[in-house]
Amino acid sequence: QVQLVESGGGSVQVGGSLRLSCTASGLTFDDYSMGWFRQPPGKERDGFACISTDGLKTWYEHSARGRVTISRDNAKNTMYLQMNNLKPEDTGMYYCGADRLRAGVCPGTWGYWGQGIQVTVSS
Questions:
Q1: CA 83 – CA 86 distance, rounded (Å)
Q2: Which among 90, 11, 99 has a CA at the least distance from the CA of 52?
Q3: pLDDT tens across 9-20, in order?
Q4: Which of 4, 40, 69, 106 is the 20 to 30 Å CA partner of 63?
Q5: 54-91 tens-digit pLDDT
Q6: Is 105 in contact with 4 (CB distance < 8 Å)?
């Protein structure tokens, strides 16, 4: 019933930009913190950027700071990730997550996940 669908991934050159989107259905969107989680090849999935229910609190993994902006449009049930100045280490799968108890921070247990979308940054 709950579904999170990512879009906007693909391949880009070093220094380029991408905008990811996650559209949610089957839940009351503005009751949930949302987040993006990155899984590089051969590594664990970790929090990348997260946002509170009202969009007022954000959290970023250290390597994302200054290059990435997370946002949400509750009227559209959609969360976004604007990524600029992309680096090869940004390559990996990006997963959309949703949870009622995270208060806009990535650390912790998340309840719902999307299928993930590939981002490839080439030198």
A1: 7
A2: 99
A3: 999 999 999 999
A4: 4
A5: 999 999 999 999 999 999 999 999 999 999 999 999 99
A6: no
